[in-house]
Amino acid sequence: MGLSDTIKQGLRQWTLAMSRDDLDERLRDGRTANEYGVDPFGLSLEYALSAVGPFVWLFKNYFRVQTYGLAHVPAGRVLLVSNHGGQLPVDGAMIGVALLTEAKPPRIVRSMVEKWVGSLPYVSTFFSRIGQIVGTPENCRRLLENDEAILVFPEGLKGISKLYAQRYQLQDFGLGFMRLALETKTPIVPVAVVGSEEQAPALINLKSVGKLFGMPALPVTPYGLPFPLPTKYRIYFGEPLVFTGRADDEDAELEKKVNVVKGAIQSMLEKGLAERKGIFF
Amino acid sequence: MLVTGISGNLGRVVAKLLHRTERVAGIDRRPFVGKPKDVEHFQIDLRKKKTEDVFRKLPVKAIVHMGIMHDPRMSAEDHHNFNVLGTTRVLECAAKYGVKKLVVLSSANVYGPSPDNSNFLSEDAPLMAASRFPSVRDLIEVDMLAHGFFWRQPSVETVVVRPVHIVGPTIKNAPSNYLRLKRPMTLMGFDPMVQLIHMQDVGSALVTALTPGLKGVYNVTGPGEVPLSSCFKELGARPLPVPHPIARGLLSSMFKYRLASYPPEELDHIQFLCMVDGARWRKETGWSPGSSMRDTIRGVLSDLS
Q1: What is the complex's ipTM, to 2 decimals?
Q2: Does B122 touch chain A (CB under 8 A)?
Q3: What sign has the CA pseudo-torsion B187, B192, B198, B203?
Q4: Which of A96-100, A211-215, B168-172 comes out lowest in average pLDDT?
Q5: Which residues of chain B neighbour A143 with C-beta distances below 8 Å?
Q6: A217 in B contact zone (CB under 8 Å)
């Protein structure tokens, strides 16, 4: 057994030690993998359980994540729609860990990642093995039809690269997720993450410098790099919203429905912000 | 039944599957080694006028057209010339001599690998391969010629078959050659999912495509999807990871001085996704591959039997 296999196995044991005992078997229920241990999209349960170890540790000890309303997430296909911020997609990872370690039964969340991720070495492979998929409508439709849980950040890049002054102000939402929800009759669970948008307080976004390095944004924090500070995370899962109507309706019609989701997230954010006593505890 | 490219690996597979139940003739400029006695072989160049003589002489009911060159060692010009002119000749004859059925072997490579690709491309995805990789232009053109013929000649049931990477012990296309390497170069940090299909399964798919009533464009997938690294593990090869900018630079200068037979754009296939959805074909024909994933991968090295 090579060194990398030893490390992988150690990480996997660590993940399982930090979670409920039967996590491994319960995740395997109802999932299909071929003789090489991967599903058609490249998700490897074994790899994923090793890879999430450090994130489970961060979830428990660094961000000390508190979840509310996880029972609202229905079985079967579901779109989780969340606010996005904090320069690095830690919010996505924490929502993923919450559903993996605290939901009953545990679920693997698949998020729709930026297209340029596919051109990054290591990152592209890592994301594929832990079940994260390049965000094209076809991919999303296919996964929903397989009754998977999909996480989307309709604020996209504009959300994650928010400056400190814009924290918890929801940016414009894309409409794509609503079209897919209508088309595949998928319930939407609004998700509000409190804590993420202060983790890396950006003062300025040097977009043009970032472009030189092929990056879509280059936020600068008082301490330089967008390293996440140990803010206290609170994740609120709202009641599922079910929409009906035509998927190919005019943008204005869809926007009305999207605003319902946006409003639900905004009010959960406000409630969360009012209830907490501080950013770090 | 007329099979073009009958002397090739796939041609021989199809001939052997068909010759007991059908009268089979083939066109190929190469000799047909191990030809069954009841198969008639015309050793002529598909592009030449003589091809038409075959249609005059024989009552051709159906054509399986796979006289398409995939040899990476031949020049792009030769490929283009042979593949496009050969296909044009076949289509002309099919229209003129009242052929009922035409099956054309294309390839899932016509979509082209890209980091933006959806994981599973359907048949209506645009054929983008040539945007980065001009030497597959001829394969796209063959596909489009057949596609155009499908609309222009409704009297001929045309089926365009786009299989994923074809592998087999005697197959000499780029993916099979690559998978046979003992110390293959891979791109550091990239391990795309790949789809393979065994040549025997492609043969049975082409025969299935001859089913009366079936027409259209179909992706044909094998037993499933695996990471490229799993293929090498299965085959006992030890990959040599190279950072992709270095690999591209190296291969492009090697190709320029004719030290490598692959242009650097071929690296896209081991860096990005180019996978297809074969569900429509399976649903409409009931076809399924005979080889398991493991046998398909191992089939690169040795015969299944």
Answers
A1: 0.86
A2: yes
A3: negative
A4: A211-215
A5: none
A6: no
